[in-house]
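Q: What does the assembly look like in three dimensions?
Context provided by user:
Components: two
Sequences:
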Amino acid sequence: MADAALFEFLHTEMVAELWAHHSDPGPGGQKMSLCVLEGMGFRVGQALGERLPQETLAFREELDVLKFLCKDLWVAVFQKQMDSLRTNHQGTYVLQDNSFPLLIRMASGLQYLEEAPKFLTFTCGLLRGTLSTLGIKSLVTASVASLPTCKFQVVIQKT
Amino acid sequence: MADAALFEFLHTEMVAELWAHHSDPGPGGQKMSLCVLEGMGFRVGQALGERLPQETLAFREELDVLKFLCKDLWVAVFQKQMDSLRTNHQGTYVLQDNSFPLLIRMASGLQYLEEAPKFLTFTCGLLRGTLSTLGIKSLVTASVASLPTCKFQVVIQKT
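A: Here is the predicted structure of the complete assembly.
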């Protein structure tokens, strides 16, 4: 089964295509490309959220939903579970993946750190979209301190 | 496992994105988007071709390579085999999929036939790219007579 590779290759091509055609060299063009990627991730996340095993969707608490992302969603997309989940119990969650698959093929020098955000944005959207399908509004950002470790921060938006 | 769905959703988003941002309404813009999609498919196909089971790659004949696409590649990407393979024994092959997964969610009215090409182009590139990795230059086109049946025509380019 080459499925996992298929998604990764397609993701890589998509990032490259958006960077080649959408971007002015300046920060405005890059921001536009990031927005497009995040939107695509959001819609894919929404659709995936509807297909993931329904019996697990009877969540009682917010924390259950976040655990679902770390386990079921991550396995469905990346064939592995998230490495850790922390929360301040006030609506902020930090999901850490110690070897994030979409970064793992990047060389690990510090000079590549600045290239990392464009490989994280789709997945931020994916998390936000899945949460949205599960009835939770959120803001999702990502950060990398050392490749290929990656942290996703989810801030729940109370209505 | 939501993998199959993941690829399909991402493919749908990619087609939609290219159509929304790349295209003039006219045929020139659409042709440009089709070219971009075909190129993405080609590069993903090249990369997949390098990862598919190496022991099966000791092909003696062209026909073996085409059978490999119909079986191993199709299973890796679409979790099913191609339904039929025909050839004129002069370098032209017709691969038929009676329910092509990227078309199967489209409504089946005749009025949707004209929308079909943009859902086939990535896969044409995928076939051409995998063949390229296996050392064969080709032209690949696709046609749909009635949804969701689809024929891919592979014409080998002799050097």
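Follow-up: The radius of gyration of chain B is 15 Å.
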